[in-house]
Amino acid sequence: MGKSSKVPHPIPTPKLTHLTPLSPPPPPPPPPESDPSGGHNNSNSELSPREQDRFLPTANVSRIMKKALPANAKISKDAKETVQECISEFISFITSDDLL
Fold this sequence. Notes:
Layout: H1 49-54, H2 58-67, H3 77-94
Helix pairs in contact: 2-3
Region (Disordered): 1-57
GO molecular function, one term: RNA polymerase II cis-regulatory region sequence-specific DNA binding
GO cellular component, one term: CCAAT-binding factor complex
């Protein structure tokens, strides 16, 4: 056999001279309106005001979980709730006075 000739790549690839930053995430929705008595309006929520204060919002937990998984992965509601509880317990643990 003779000299091997180099075959050019069939698909041209662009040269990356710089990376463009990702656009920032959209701002979070405004908090629900408070009623005149000073309590929270929970008509659309299944968590009590105390649980809402204790857990991170489900949307934030979902966004963090989605970033760690493949794009086509599905996350169950139960998994999101479990991670919410774990985050809450972790934050409570690291902020407790018992560590000192």
